[in-house]
Each structure stands twice: as structure tokens, then as C-alpha cells.
């Protein structure tokens, strides 16, 4: 269906470049929530907080600094792809769209996105300026299909007060394991000394949690998750080793049981466990708790990338990016998009305050970034982060299928090998139908 839609894009009209106000308009569509009432007139980005607040203030500042242009914003419910597909079908896609890097291939391989090298060149942005993880995430073949905006993935969020009670602090830093065997030994020690679980888990209704953990520790063993665009590799010695390790956490009850994401977040903030492996996006929330007297995390919070438990220190990641859907545009609109890219690149530090890893090497080295809480500790994610191969389609759906089967394996609802085999079968069937 999407291939047919791509053909229809050639018939698009230019659309309205101006609206009687003398300005060039471009239409931006994003997720991250709606907070225009609070931040819609804020042009001091430093005063904005959270993903929604910061992106809203950024667009307001861009519009204020470019009086000949106007970025008109449409906020969609996360993740927004059904609406985007409908807009493509109606031959009226936006000019700029926020897109997870794992979704880019679904659109780019159908010629529904423009390669962005011309916009990057006009904006004075060299692809070499991107971090390794960011560049991998937006490159398909030899073309770049988006302005990368961040890298996000799982982190070990740690209650250092409980780690101290467990005897797992050295020099003010938590002691993290360097092997699966050390992980289990430290978890047993932690539980014996604190009476609380070492690992807080969201194994219920959170397939991303299970998939992220499985992908990370298969990759760490040097095994590819995909060797071609149509077949996933999970039921392998490396996959079994990783899944059996994650199953053992539940067999020995070293982690919490039967929690969804809200319950796991609440448990960590209430001091009910040592480590909560969740995303970069939770740093702000947990840091606020760490700065609130009387709260269990007060002055007791640290965060690091997943530790290396097998051969290579790598971690499964994704990222947010800005894509340009394919359609006819005026030269003025193309110039406006390039100016927007330049502005967003210049303000990548501001976005990094959300907790996500910057997409630009210069921001990683910026003293302002390093001075932010915990950023020096999590910065390696920009180097060790690995997305799924860009040639793989339907990555969001794959994460859901793998996460569902992986969670069944980890919690004992299915035998581990059967769950991995079922995940392979379901993903391969999905990919056999993908165009």
C-alpha cells in the first residue's frame, strides 16, 4: 500500500507557501505532548522543562528569531505514525516530522522521505559532527534521511543509599557487575543485606523493557540480531544465554514481580529496590526526587549505562530525529527547513537537558553538558549505542513481538527456548509480508 502512496506523491501540489501575511510557512508535526498554554510564548529555552516544554520553547524562539518564516505546529498523540500515513495517503504530508530512528526505514525505503543532505549542506551541518550512534540511526545505505536529535536507551538507575547498605559502593560510586555471574552474586548480597530486590522490573505490559534487555545482551556477545532484512536471530546460543540469565533473576526472585511501568517507577522512587533499568527520559524525574528532602532517593541517586556482562560493551539504542516527508516545495520552504535544521543543531544542548544523549559530538564535549547532573556518567551511550540495522523494516512492531515473547520467557510463562523460537517465527512471518 505504501508503495502506491509513494507514486502518488509526484502529483502533490506546492501547497500554500504564504497565507497573506508575507511569511513562508512550514508545517511541523511532532509528539512529546501539548503544553502550549504553559510554554507557547516562552522564548527563553533555559526556563522550559521536560520534553514538551523544551521543544515548545524552541519552536517559539525560532519563530521569534525568523520573522519572515512561520513554523506551524501540529501536536499528535504518541507516536503519530498512523496519522502521518493517513496524511501521506491524502497527499498532504507535513514538512517536518519527529520520527523514531527505528521507523525511518519504513518510510525511506518507499521514497516517502527526502534524503536530507541538501538541507544539511545549506545549514552548514557536516554528518561527521553527529555521534556514532546518531549517525547510524539516520543512515540507510549511503544516504542520510533525517537530522538526528538524540540517542535514547536503557540505563541503570540506582538507589545509592541501598547500595551502600549492601556494601556495594566504592569511592562514592556504585559497584556494578562485570559478568552475569557477578550480577547474580551482587544481587544475592544486596537482597541479603537490605531485604529488598536488587532489580526493579516492569515485566507486565512493557515489551520494550524485555526487548531492550534481550537485544542488548545478545549484541554484547558479538552476535548479530539480524544478518539479513527478513530473518531475526534469537534462538541461538547467545540468545539462550542472555534469556536464561534474565530468567534466573525471576527464578531466584532477585527482581520485583508482576509490575507494569507505573508500578516499577513508583517502587524505585519509594526506595523499594536497588536498580531500575529504564530509559534516559526518566533522569529528570528521578533527579527531582534526589533533590527533595525526605524522599527515599534524596541524595541517593546515580545512573549509568547498562554494564558489560559479556564480551563487548554495547547497548541497544534508538533515537529521535527530524525527517522531511517527500512532496513538492517552494525554494523558500526548502530554505526554511534548512534554517530550522541549523537552529535545532545549535540548540541540541537545550534538548539534552531532557536526559537524552546529544546527537552532536560537540555537545557531548560541551562543559555545559558535562556539568549537568549525571551526564558525564551516561555520555558513553553515544559511543556504545547500537540500533537495529537500518535495512530492517517494521522495527516498532518487531520490538513489540520480541518483547512479548521475551517477557513470557523471563517470567516463566513459556520455556525459554520455545519463547525465542516463537519470537523468531512471528517476526520472520511479519517481515515476509513487509514491502
Contiguous uncertain segments of 5+ residues: 3-16
* Number of DSSP E strands: 17
* Structure classification: alpha+beta
Mean pLDDT score = 95
Q: Note the beta-strand portion.
A: 15-25%
Q: How many DSSP helices?
A: 21
Q: What's the alpha carbon Rg, rounded to whole Å?
A: 22 Å
Largest sheet: 6 strands, mixed
- How far from one another are the termini? 9 Å
Shape: globular
Helical content class: 40-55%
List the helices and strands and how they pair.
Blueprint: H1 2-8, E1 24-30, H2 36-39, H3 50-65, E2 69-75, H4 81-89, E3 96-100, H5 104-108, H6 117-123, H7 132-138, E4 139-140, E5 143-144, E6 147-148, E7 150-159, H8 160-165, E8 169-170, E9 173-174, H9 180-194, H10 207-219, E10 226-228, E11 231-232, H11 237-251, H12 261-269, E12 275-279, H13 283-290, E13 301-305, E14 315-318, E15 320-323, H14 331-346, H15 348-352, E16 357-358, H16 361-364, H17 367-371, H18 375-378, H19 381-384, E17 385-386, H20 395-410, H21 416-433
Parallel strand pairs: 1-2, 1-3, 14-17
Antiparallel strand pairs: 3-15, 4-5, 6-15, 7-12, 7-13, 7-14, 7-16, 8-9, 10-11
Put the structure in a nutshell.
With 435 residues, the chain is an alpha+beta fold.
Amino acid at each position: 500500500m505504501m508503495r502506491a502512496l509513494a507514486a502518488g506523491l509526484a502529483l502533490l501540489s506546492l501547497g500554500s507557501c504564504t497565507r497573506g501575511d508575507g511569511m513562508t510557512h512550514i508545517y511541523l508535526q511532532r509528539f512529546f505532548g501539548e503544553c502550549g498554554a504553559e510554554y507557547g510564548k516562552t522564548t527563553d529555552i533555559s526556563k522550559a522543562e521536560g520534553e514538551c516544554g523544551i521543544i515548545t520553547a524552541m519552536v517559539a524562539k525560532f519563530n521569534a528569531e525568523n520573522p519572515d518564516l512561520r513554523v506551524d505546529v501540529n501536536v499528535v498523540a504518541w507516536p503519530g505514525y498512523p496519522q502521518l500515513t493517513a496524511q501521506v495517503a491524502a497527499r498532504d504530508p507535513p514538512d517536518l516530522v519527529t520520527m523514531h530512528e527505528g521507523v525511518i526505514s519504513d518510510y525511506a525505503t518507499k521514497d516517502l522521505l527526502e534524503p536530507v543532505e541538501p538541507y544539511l549542506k545549506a545549514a552548514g551541518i557536516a554528518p561527521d559532527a553527529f555521534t556514532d550512534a546518531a549517525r547510524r540511526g539516520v543512515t540507510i545505505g549511503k544516504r542520510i534521511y533525517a537530522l538526528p536529535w538524540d540517542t535514547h536507551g536503557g540505563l541503570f538507575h540506582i538507589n545509592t543509599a541501598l547500595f551502600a547498605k549492601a556494601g556495594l559502593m566504592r569511592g562514592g560510586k556504585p559497584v556494578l557487575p562485570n559478568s552475569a555471574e557477578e550480577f547474580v552474586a551482587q544481587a544475592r548480597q544486596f537482597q541479603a543485606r537490605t531485604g529488598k530486590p536488587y532489580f526493579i522490573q516492569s515485566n507486565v505490559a512493557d515489551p520494550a523493557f524485555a526487548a531492550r534487555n534481550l537485544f542488548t545482551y545478545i549484541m554484547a556477545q558479538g552476535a548479530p540480531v539480524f544478518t539479513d532484512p527478513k530473518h531475526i536471530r534469537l534462538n541461538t546460543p547467545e540468545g539462550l544465554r542472555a534469556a536464561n540469565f534474565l530468567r534466573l533473576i525471576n527464578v531466584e526472585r532477585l527482581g520485583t514481580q508482576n509490575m507494569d511501568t507505573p508500578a516499577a517507577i513508583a517502587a524505585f522512587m519509594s526506595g523499594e529496590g536497588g536498580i531500575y533499568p529504564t530509559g534516559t527520559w526518566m533522569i529528570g524525574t528521578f533527579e527531582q526526587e534526589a533533590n527533595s528532602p525526605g524522599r527515599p532517593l534524596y541524595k541517593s541517586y546515580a545512573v549509568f549505562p547498562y554494564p558489560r556482562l559479556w564480551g563487548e560493551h554495547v547497548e541497544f539504542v534508538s533515537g529521535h530525529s527530524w525527517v522531511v516527508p517527500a512532496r513538492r516545495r517552494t525554494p523558500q520552504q526548502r530554505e526554511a527547513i534548512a534554517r530550522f535544521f541549523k537552529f535545532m543543531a545549535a540548540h541540541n544542548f537545550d534538548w539534552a537537558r531532557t536526559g537524552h544523549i546529544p546527537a552532536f559530538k560537540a555537545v557531548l564535549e560541551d562543559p555545559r553538558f558535562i556539568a549537568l547532573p549525571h551526564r558525564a556518567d551516561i555520555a558513553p551511550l553515544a559511543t556504545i549505542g547500537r540500533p537495529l540495522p537500518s535495512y530492517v523494516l517494521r522495527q516498532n512492531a518487531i520490538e513489540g513481538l520480541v518483547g512479548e515473547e521475551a517477557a513470557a520467557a523471563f517470567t516463566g510463562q513459556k520455556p525459554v527456548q520455545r519463547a525465542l523460537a516463537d519470537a523468531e517465527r512471528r517476526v520472520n512471518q511479519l517481515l515476509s509480508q513487509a514491502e
